[in-house]
Amino acid sequence: MDYQQSLAYLDELNTFGIRLGLSRMENLCARLGNPERAYQTIHVAGTNGKGSVTQMLDAVYRAAGIRCGRYLSPHLVAYTERVSVGGEDISEERFAALLTRVRRAADAMVADGHEHPTQFEELTALAFLYFAEEKVEVAVIETGLGGLLDSTNVIDPVLTIITNVAMDHADRCGGTLAGIAEHKAGIIKEGVPLITAASGEPLEIILARAEEMNADVFVYGEDFSGEMIFPAGGGQSVAFHSVVCREPAPFDLALAGTYQAENAALVIMAAQLLEREDARVTEAAVRTALRTVRHPARFELLSWAAGTAVVDGAHNPAGMAALRAGLDAYFPEERRVFLLGILRDKDIDTMLSLLLRPGDAVVTARPNSDRAAGADVVAAVAAAMGLETVACGDMRAALVEAERRARDGRLLVVCGSLYLVGSVRRLLRASGR
After folding, report:
1. Domain ranges, residue 342
2. Does the structure show a pLDDT above 80 at 365?
3. DSSP string, 93-136
4. Which of the four pLDDT bands, split at 50, 70 and 90, describes residue 170?
């Protein structure tokens, strides 16, 4: 297959939907020679923040001179964004060639009477294969959904990280916060250290699982913490506090958003543990990584003709609450125009109640997903809050409308489903608005 044919094939795989379980993935990996065993791995799960933590850890390894692979999901624009080595995304040609090999293995599974792998399973196998062939020393692997039955959970990591646990994907992870926590805790392995920012009941569940697995646990808010500080000379830094390790001077942080202090603290704690086994993971490498790391659409600040736009992939209640806190901290006085698109399986009422404040204007569009809520559905929720609201037929029209309303000096904020945020971000960058 060439790249365009590989995209068509991935679309065909959508017919298999999301089917949790590890048997298909184990079979597929075995047929490919178990490439996931060729390098060390770090496994990252959590409701929010796992993508940022994955990017930061990848940056730490690269700054340390260690050849590292990174697997993320979903992507903003192209599937190739999900898989990188040394900070470079996989090429379209290599992506297509590897997916062709994964497809052959999947077809052989079916011929032998097994279930066909899902799209995410084949993408994960592709990433594992790429990392092995690129001879990475370590790969940072982000879960797709949950943890226990997620396709990535065939790895045997040297460190696990669970960023936090909140209500999201409840329909596939037990229906309750406790059920979600049990799924996240499913990535904990025998004797493998765990770092987590979970709290409350989810933390209790995670700690119980860690005890069963004889895993040492380092808890944010108890063993270590991070605080965003804004030096008088400008910029932002994270003050890292620890009761288990030496406390260094504050770390400059490139990623905006007050919630990134917690994510950065998880990474600093991880680096201090990893340094015990690999002296190359130094404090200097961590400082370089945090100062230079990039993670598109996570409180990303973009310029357009009339000012600044904030682009953020907040797509669940916890994410919306974090975005609101960031907006209030960085832009406390600015009036705001939101361009929103949300999936229909999300708690739209709660999300908007956490995000919006009186005086906000809202423009809605339908994300490019079969699971998307209609623009009119989201607009009706905002209108019921008494806000200035308009629903648009497509993303381009929505961006034009949102920009028109923001030209009076209001802050433009693009957020919600990554299926919308990625497309609008591309329009903003391509047009040089």
Report:
1. 300-431
2. yes
3. HHHHHHHHHHHHHHHHHHHTTPPPPPHHHHHHHHHHHHHHHTT-
4. very low
